[in-house]
Amino acid sequence: MTTKKQIPLKNYEKFSDNKIKEMSEMFYAKMDSRRTVRTFSSEPISIEVLKNAIKAANTSPSGANKQPWHFVLVQSAEIKKKIRIAAEKEEKEFYSNRAPAEWLKDLEPFETDEHKPFLETAPYLIVVFEEKYKIASNGEKAKNYYTKESVGLACGILLVALHNVGIATLTHTPSPMKFLAEILKRPKNETPFLLIVAGYPEVGTVVPNIKRKELNEILTII
Q: Whole-angstrom Cα distance, residue 127 to residue 80?
């Protein structure tokens, strides 16, 4: 039964048990190859590909369907440079003064420091903002719900969409991130949530030799 507020569900196809198992295994294998990359090529990517990935992210579920996110796609060399300068300033403070010794030790396998050249090298930066509340045309505030959870789900879909077409990513969370709102001139109801670096890996890129947890470590079946 449908009403004016509902429409029929479409595009859900039921497959055989063997087929659906095969499809799930193929998808897992695809995602298991995903790695965070820290050395990027400057080779350009069609902006339409990035737009499609962001449209995919916009299909994410959200609290009361408020879609409390905004994506800023940065391709300007000038803006990328400003972001790098500001991010490296915060990262230097983090590595020098704010990070606990245990955190720095946990970061050792990744060989990271305050230097973030990928913020300029990669063809695109995607800065994701969490819309804490909406501002109506009359200036009044309208509530959004479960904003962090909603934006986190959208970011996950965005990473999958990019990996699916062979685009490497790095999720960067300088702390604090207020400088991103200032540089990108975002309204006061938006808070920086995540900076995603997107591009092709540089030839010869290497990644840390790490392992993912086994299924029995992350799954309980009751």
A: 11
Confidence at residue 4, expressed as pLDDT on a 0 to 100 scale: 75
Q: What is the pLDDT of residue 3?
A: 66
Any idea what the Cα angle at residue 111 is, between residues 104 and 174, rounded to 5°?
60
Rounded CA separation 191/131 (Å)? 6
Mean pLDDT of 68-82: 98
Using CA atoms, how far apart are residues 82 and 99, in angstroms rounded to an integer? Answer: 24
CA dihedral 41, 105, 96, 125 (to 10 degrees): 30
CATH superfamily of 37-203: NADH Oxidase (3.40.109.10)
Q: Which of 76, 78, 60, 77 is nearest to 193 (CA)?
A: 60
Domain ranges of the chain: 37-203
- Left (φ > 0), alpha (ψ -120 to 50) or beta: where does 130 sit? beta
Mean pLDDT of 182-203: 97
Region 144-156: mean pLDDT is 98
